[in-house]
Write a structure and sequence with these properties.
heterodimer, A: about 160 residues, alpha+beta, Sufe protein. Chain: A, 3-stranded antiparallel sheet, 6 helices, 3 strands, about 15% strand, B: about 400 residues, alpha/beta, Aspartate Aminotransferase, domain 1, Aspartate Aminotransferase, domain 2, 2 domains, 4-stranded antiparallel sheet, about 40% helix
């Protein structure tokens, strides 16, 4: 039950119940990317607008579990208005947080990369997910979709 | 009449396990059933005392392995009511491979551009995708039967859909809704339209009395691991004359009569469809599982699960009312022990995670039936499914877990 409480922290439930930046930006001009988790059927739609080297606006659509939806909401709040290099950095840090634990679960000898949890701010609330390996894909869905969108725009 | 579940549970060592400090409550038999101790023992004994390849050696253990493997074919055939098991029961890897075998060997021989195969909207991907692959390759047309307001198969346009069809391939019981389809009527009407009928029995064969001859079926598929047996073995039953007219599926050892550098001659049925070393231990395990089910009695198994399903639905309705959706027909003779649940405002993944914390094993997701989920307008459900080892105590823990979920997300 302790693990479960760590998974479903209040901040996660709050973002699930009241998702930030919910919806879709008109596309075009916004760029639209869809992400799927074929395992469970979760879908996320990320629409972004880039201006002067920054992520001017972002909206999140789709549906899924509390982990995928709150992670998407937390992500949108963390990256909105940020310079693109900062956005890329946040994506990398978050994915490291998830993958470090993935590697530990696989019992590899690889030295885990240190993650500065303070740099993650509210996102650190999602670290409870790593004790539930199946749910890591829920948490990373929106992040992978955002990264794909940035790749498609070649920014 | 009813099953002695307390005694039955003793035959399933896994049920003695605890998870998260709780008794394990296994409600995922629709995904995979648990094997009784006897099945594991039969397979272990085979490996320790008999193991040899089949249909090859002349030494004593090789002959014994062949005899046990072929005996298993007979056990499966009799369980299904097959008139001549020795030439009608083909061992495969699972239901999915059985249907791929059918689509490949029968489909490529009998279906051409414009030919029609009728499916239903509640099929598992295993009974959709092989036909879609054939449609992409051959240009065949797929038609889908719908559902009525109570999630039963909609028969109102059946004759229209069957008009000109060569095959009706349909589930005997939905793995999402628990809907049991009227196979005898479907077979009669398919045949009247000049079509054959293949039944996906993955969910029905382990839980319902089913007789392929009495129902007048042409083909039937099912899996060992949902029938108290091991993984890695499935069955395709077909009428002998139909199987004999089909070319091989996979090529290799064991499926030939003769091979030269120029050509091969395929073996007779069923060897023709069993290329390579078959799942010998798994066939022996499956036979033992079927004997276990037969000892309990098919009718008793169905009566127990039907009663448990009705009780569970009443308990859930009473506790959660309209805040819990249960997809599928009302309890009764045409509903199996599969409950697809959706708590208001809570995603199935979260429901299943919280159920896990009280030891309850259910399956969240789309259940490999995405066309049905789209039709229902839901992305995922948490599915609880029953087997012979479940009783009302298990349902009580399910209710407790669902209440936890409602509290956490409420």
């Amino acid at each position: 039950m302790a693990d479960l409480e760590e998974l479903y922290r209040e901040i996660i439930l709050d973002h699930y119940r009241s998702p930030r930046n919910r919806g879709e930006l008109p596309s075009p001009p916004a760029h639209r990317t869809e992400g799927f988790n074929p395992l469970c059927g979760d879908e996320v739609v990320v629409t972004i607008e880039i201006e002067n080297g920054a992520l001017r606006d972002i909206k999140i659509g789709g549906q899924g579990c509390s982990i995928s939806q709150s992670s998407a909401s937390l992500m949108s709040a963390a990256v909105k208005g940020q310079p693109l290099d900062e956005v890329r950095k946040k994506i990398a840090t978050f994915k490291t947080l998830m993958s470090v634990h993935e590697a530990q679960l696989e019992e590899t000898d690889a030295e885990p990369e240190a993650v500065d949890l303070r740099a993650l701010g509210e996102l650190a609330a999602l670290q409870g997910v790593v004790k539930f390996p199946v749910r890591i894909k829920c948490a990373t869905l929106a992040w992978n979709t955002l990264a794909q969108g940035l790749d498609e725009l070649e920014v | 009449m009813s099953l002695d579940v307390t005694r039955i549970r003793k035959d399933f060592p896994l049920l003695a396990r605890e998870v998260h400090g709780r008794r394990i409550v296994y409600l995922d038999s629709a995904a995979s059933s648990l094997p009784p101790h006897d099945v594991v023992t039969a397979m272990g004994e085979y490996y320790e005392t008999t193991h040899a390849n089949v249909h090859r050696g002349v030494y004593a253990t090789a002959e014994e392995a062949t005899r046990l493997y072929e005996r298993s074919r007979g056990v499966v055939g009799r369980f299904l009511g097959a008139p001549s098991p020795a030439t009608e029961v083909v061992f495969s890897k699972n239901t999915t491979e059985s249907i791929n075998l059918l689509a490949h060997a029968w489909g490529r021989t009998n279906l051409a551009q414009g030919d029609v195969v009728v499916l239903s909207i509640m099929e598992h991907h295993a009974n959709i995708v092989p036909w879609q692959m054939l449609a992409a390759e051959r240009g065949i047309e797929l038609r889908f039967l719908g559902l009525d307001a109570d999630y039963r198969l909609d028969l109102t346009d059946l004759d229209e859909k069957l008009d000109g069809a060569k095959l009706l391939s349909i589930t005997a019981m939905s793995n999402v809704l628990g809907t049991i389809t009227p196979l005898a009527e479907l077979a009669t009407r398919a045949h009247a339209a000049g079509a054959l009928i293949h039944v996906d029995g993955a969910q029905a064969v382990p839980h319902l009395p089913l007789d392929v001859a009495a129902l007048d079926l042409d083909f039937l598929s099912f899996s060992g691991h949902k029938t108290l047996g091991p993984t890695g073995i499935g069955v395709l039953w077909g009428r002998a004359a139909l199987l004999e007219a089909m070319p091989p599926f996979l090529g290799g050892g064991g499926m030939i009569l003769d091979v030269s550098t120029e050509r091969f001659l395929p073996a007779a049925v069923p060897d023709r469809f069993e290329a390579g070393t078959p799942p010998i231990a798994e066939a022996i395990g499956l036979a033992r599982a079927i004997e276990y089910l037969e000892a309990l009695g098919k009718d008793q198994v169905r009566a127990h699960e039907q009663a448990l399903t009705a009780t569970a639905m009443a308990m859930l309705e009473e506790r959660f009312g309209s805040s819990l959706a249960i997809y599928g027909p009302p309890a009764g003779a045409d509903r199996g022990g599969v409950l697809s649940l959706a708590l208001e405002g809570i995603h199935a993944h979260d429901t299943a995670q919280i159920l896990d914390s009280v030891g309850v094993c259910v399956r969240p997701g789309h259940h490999c039936a995405k066309p049905l989920m789209r039709h229902l307008g839901v992305s995922a459900t948490a599915r609880a499914s029953f087997g012979i080892y479940n009783d009302v105590d298990d349902v009580e823990v399910l209710v407790e877990g669902l209440a936890e979920a409602a509290k956490l997300f409420g």
